[in-house]
Amino acid sequence: MALGGYATTAVTAVTAQDTLGVHGVFPISPSFIQLQMRLVLGDIGADAFKSGMLADAATVEAVADVLAGYPAIPFVLDPVMVAKGGHPLLAGEAVASLKAALLPLASLITPNTPEAEVLWGHRIATLADQHRAAEALLRLGARAVLLKGGHMDAADITDILATPDGTHIFTARRRDTRHTHGTGCTLASGIATGLAQGMTLPEATRRAHAYVQAALASAPGFGAGNGPLNHAVG
Fold it and tell me: What is the pTM of this model?
């Protein structure tokens, strides 16, 4: 909403968490997830899709089954695998389903480096590794890859947007803050909003990247752990 969009949400799981970590996960049945999606799509419709936490293979396949019916709508796939505090959010057997069922539907996939390592199957330790991983993920079937560099050991964070038409680089100075909860989800949602508004992928990524940096800079400082961003930033 801060970027001029309107989000409707199909809840895939209910989590019990605070800024210190995820303390419990209550999954929603795949059939009920599909019901949420189909009701909203049949009434309000959608100009873009963005997926986040999909806990298991059955959930991945249920979401893919619905999205496959809307091939013309841009789809941003955020392959959420581990929470900020280390709690696993994607079952190991679901990775194969994600690669087989969802990744080919994605207009963009937005892994961080640990997630990209799982999807690619190799360690990512350097900027050159990031480039190679992004290109490898393109070959797996995604139409574009935004490989985020926040987990890399560097003063500047480099995100690499790889597309069949070329590569775009987005950099930002690393901030000395622990209030980073939801940065990846926020970035993916911001990009999806831009695509829904008719922006090109590089334009949508550039605006979302700037928005996340502003939200980080003005984070309210809540909690004793990884606190939230300021999503209301203008």
Answer: 0.95
Report which of 148, 145, 151, 141 is spatially closest to residue 186, judged by C-alpha positions.
Answer: 148
Query: Which of the residues are catalytic?
Result: 148, 180, 182-185
Closest CA to 54 of 88, 86, 21: 88
49-51 and 145-147 beta bridge pairing: unpaired
Q: Would you state the pLDDT for residue 212?
A: 97
Neighbour order of strands in the sheet with 156-163: 49-51, 75-77, 108-109, 145-147, 156-163, 166-173
Residue closest to 158 by CA, chosen among 167, 36, 166 = 167
Check residue 220 and report its DSSP letter: -
The pLDDT score that the predictor gives to residue 80 is 87
Closest residue by Cα to residue 159 from 121, 183, 130, 124: 130
Do residues 92 and 81 lie in contact, with contact meaning Cβ atoms separated by under 8 Å? no
Looking at residue 229, its pLDDT comes to: 95
- The residue behind tokens 């890399």 is 152
Render pLDDT for 7-17 as a digit per residue (tens, 0 to 9): 999 999 999 99
Confirm if 186 and 229 have CB atoms less than 8 A apart. Answer: yes
Q: Which residues are within 8 A (CB) of 205 and not within 5 positions of it... i.e. 6 or more apart?
A: 146, 159, 161, 168, 170, 191, 194
Do 10 and 23 meet the contact criterion of CB atoms below 8 Å apart?
Answer: no
At which residue do the structure tokens 């008719």 appear? 198
Is pLDDT above 90 for 151? no
pLDDT in tens, 40-59: 999 999 999 999 999 899 99
